[in-house]
Each structure stands twice: as C-alpha cells, then as structure tokens.
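Please decode residue identities from the backbone states below.
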C-alpha cells in the first residue's frame, strides 16, 4: 500500500474537461491529482490522458477527415485548376499511422503540461470509498496495486461511452463503434452506418471520399434535428449529392452474417416494410451515454438522473458539498470545449473566484464537407418560444473568395431580435465554417447587435465577409446581394 496523499482537489478522468480542469487548478496554486485508467490506443498499455476526444474522437477523426479531403481534391477537384494528377491512390495504413502519431504527440503534450503545472497524474481506476465535505477518500487501482488518497474536493469528469444497440455486438473489427471506424486498415467496399448524427456523418464522409459506398441508416424522419431546419435541409441535399445514401425513418431489427461472411443488416422502413442491406463493415453511431456507475458516487450520496447523468446546478455543483461534475457526464451538449469551460469554471470557484460558463454561447461544429457550425438559437427554437426576430442570409455563391477557392456551397444566416437587434443565433454552412464561427460566438457572448457586426470592417476578399453580409441582411440589407 502506497502512503496516502492529500489533495486540495482530485479530478476523476483525464479527458478534455478533466485535464484542463487539472491544469487550471495547478495554475491557481491548488494541490491537484488527476486519475485516469483507460489506456486507449497506447501500445504499452499505459493509461493515457486526453479521453475520448483526443484518443478515439475529435482529434483522430479530424486527422482522417483531412487526409480524405486531400485525396478527394487530387482525384476530383484538381482538374478545374489545370492540375493533372491521374492515378492517385490512397495508402490507408500510412494514413492511419499519421493519425496515431498525432494522437500520441498530443497525449505526451498533456503529460508535459501536467508536469509543468504540478498536476499529479494518477494512473489507475478511481473508486470513491467514503467521505463528506472537506475529506473524501478515494482508491486508485492498477495492476493489483492500490493507492488511497484523500481530497478536499472532487471533480467527476468521467465522460461518456458509445451507446449500444440491443442485439448488436461491437467487435471493432467488422461491427464497430467510433473507435473501430478510425482504424480500418483498408477501404471497405460497402460501409453502413447506423446513426445520421455528427459522428455518423463525419465517419461516413471519410470513407466515402476514399471509395466506400456508404449507406446511413437513421431512425428519425429528418437529418440533423439539432440544427437549424434550413441548415439541415441544405446538408441533406449536399451530402446526398456527394454520394451518401440516406435511409431515414428506418428501424434496425438485427445484424447477421451470410455464408461468405458478409454482414446483413435488417431494418424496416417508415411504412413497416422489411429490408436487408449487405455491407462489409458496420459502424454503430447512435449517440453516447454518461459514465457514472461503478465509481462509488452512491457511497457519498451524489445524485444521478434516470439517464445516468450526474445532477448538477449551473455551476456544476452536485448534491454533495465539495463535489462537482463536468463534461459529458452532466447535462448539456457532449462537446470537448464545453467540458473544458466547465473545468475552468469549477476550479476558479473552488479557488474562491467567480468562474462561469455562458451556455448560450457554446458553438457546435460538424466536420463534414462543407462543414456546419452554429451558435445560439435556431429559427425553430425562436418560433417555439414566440420570440420576434429578423433573419439575414448570404450565400457563398456571391462571395469572391469562395469563387476563387472553387467551393461556393452553403450560406451564413444571422438571427437577430426584432426589437433590440441583438444577435440570437448564427448558422454557417461552408468549407471553413469551423474557423468562422468564432466571431459569431464572440458576438453572442458580448451581446452584439447585428448592426455591430455589419459596421465592423471585414478584410476583403475573405470567406468571413459573408457573416457581415448576413448581419446586414438582417437589417438594412446586404451590400453584395
């Protein structure tokens, strides 16, 4: 038994929220430990920081999206620029190795930041044993060895896992979740994805560009219900035109193998008619569920919801004094940057400061091609709330930089309050939407009016000029349309 150590705060989970919370705690002078058990893809089996986002989510998927985009540009779009590149091929193992190297580099970077900020990285599975405000006892177990620590505060940052479908066993070889779909060693001729959400569309885009015939099975009658309805309709049209085959309103009833080993997916369409779809690889991407069980929350009285989320207030305080929870394990969107902001807020409040998170200014992004990015309210939300608003829209087909880039798909839409002109929501469909949403997020954070955006000088020619034009369109009118 290793000697018991006392921390000001112990963070359980070293994912996006947990590692950022730990670093901020160190910066604030708190004695902090951060426990993590999952080795993810570490070849040595060592627990790795970074959580789902870094290891099997955001970062590796963006690396593959980038590789697949480069391949598609060479294959399909270079010709219009006068570039001849016939016979281009894709070396999938090299692409996967590049992705893995990026993840490993960033994981090592987090461990460096832990050392820099005096964060004790506790490699092992954390289980809460007992305690109350000011003194919580936790065991950290790994390889038959157990260390007990005491902490004055606990931060639960245990994240989430892929949701499973009854009757479908994930082997991450042929039937995969997001982790398996990031590690294919060859391009599957036929790929079926169950779930038309963010993960499903991003992974489908990667392998479609590389040559897969991709079918997306979605139980809902429409694509991307979380998006502004006009955005969802535009993306359905654009992605279908690229070759993604959508089966909407479809309910999966089972998966089996035929005699030659190929997968057979059975589903029923909205009319109730049964269908069988053959595929070489199957990806289940039907959302995620919080990890809140088996860590001992019940031993100290922390309340969870029926769906397994840790119950917290607006400052991420749980039902037990001195215990906080952040990220995917609590309410709100499962986004890495939301978890990071919550981690910073919690540590600042523990240190006696006034940390806060503006949940109305959390941007969301889908990294398809074109990308989708939004922040604030959708039109359907404003209508449901009875909020009077004005909408301004500007297409990239009228943007000089987009024309020069050879990609004019998409638009920017600005929603502003009809009386105050304060920006309520911004929605972007564009190749570089992820890089343009920052200005819109800042506008909402500082309660800018649409006129404010319209009066700010925007460099020309740029894609983000379209945001200014859309803001103007919500008022006196766009200048270039």
């Amino acid at each position: 038994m290793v000697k018991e150590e006392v921390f000001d705060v112990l963070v359980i989970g070293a994912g996006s929220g947990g590692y950022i919370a730990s670093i901020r705690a160190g910066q604030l002078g708190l004695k902090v430990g951060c426990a993590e058990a999952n080795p993810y893809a570490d070849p040595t089996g060592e627990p790795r920081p970074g959580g789902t986002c870094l290891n099997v989510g955001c970062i590796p998927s963006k690396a593959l999206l980038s590789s697949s985009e480069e391949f598609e540009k060479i294959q399909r779009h270079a010709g219009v620029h006068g570039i001849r590149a016939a016979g281009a091929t894709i070396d999938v193992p090299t692409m996967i190795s590049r992705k893995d190297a990026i993840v490993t580099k960033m994981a090592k970077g987090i461990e460096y930041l832990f050392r820099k900020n005096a964060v004790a990285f506790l490699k092992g599975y954390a289980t809460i044993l007992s305690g109350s405000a000011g003194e919580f006892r936790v065991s950290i177990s790994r390889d038959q060895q157990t260390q007990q620590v005491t902490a004055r505060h606990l931060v639960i940052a245990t994240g989430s896992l892929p949701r499973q479908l009854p009757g479908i066993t994930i082997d991450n070889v042929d039937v995969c979740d997001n982790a398996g779909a990031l590690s294919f060693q060859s391009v599957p001729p036929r790929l079926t994805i169950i779930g038309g959400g963010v993960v499903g569309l991003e992974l489908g885009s990667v392998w479609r560009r590389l040559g897969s015939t991709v079918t997306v099975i979605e139980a809902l009658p429409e694509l991307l219900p979380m998006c502004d309805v006009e955005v969802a309709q535009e993306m359905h049209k654009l992605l279908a035109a690229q070759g993604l085959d959508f089966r909407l309103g479809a309910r999966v009833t089972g998966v089996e193998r035929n005699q030659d080993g190929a997968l057979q997916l059975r589903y029923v369409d909205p009319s109730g008619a049964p269908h069988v779809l053959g595929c070489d690889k199957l990806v289940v991407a039907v959302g995620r569920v919080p990890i809140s069980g088996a860590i001992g929350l019940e031993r100290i009285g922390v309340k969870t919801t029926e769906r397994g989320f840790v119950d917290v207030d607006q400052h991420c305080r749980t039902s037990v004094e001195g215990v906080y929870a952040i990220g995917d394990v609590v309410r709100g969107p499962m986004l890495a940057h939301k978890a990071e902001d919550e981690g910073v807020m919690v540590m600042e409040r523990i240190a006696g400061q006034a940390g806060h998170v503006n949940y109305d200014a959390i941007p969301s992004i889908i990294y398809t091609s074109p990308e989708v990015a939004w922040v604030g309210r959708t039109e359907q939300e404003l209508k449901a709330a009875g909020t009077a608003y004005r909408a301004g829209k500007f297409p990239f087909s009228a943007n000089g930089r987009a024309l020069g880039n050879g990609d004019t798909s998409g638009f920017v839409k600005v929603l502003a309050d009809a009386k105050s002109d304060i920006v309520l929501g911004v929605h972007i469909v564009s190749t570089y939407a992820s890089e343009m949403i920052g200005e819109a997020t800042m506008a909402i954070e500082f309660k800018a009016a649409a006129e404010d955006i319209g009066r700010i000088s925007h460099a020309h020619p740029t894609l983000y000029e379209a945001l200014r034009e859309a803001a103007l369109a919500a008022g006196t009118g766009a200048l270039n349309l």
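Observation: DSSP finds 13 helices and 22 strands in the chain.
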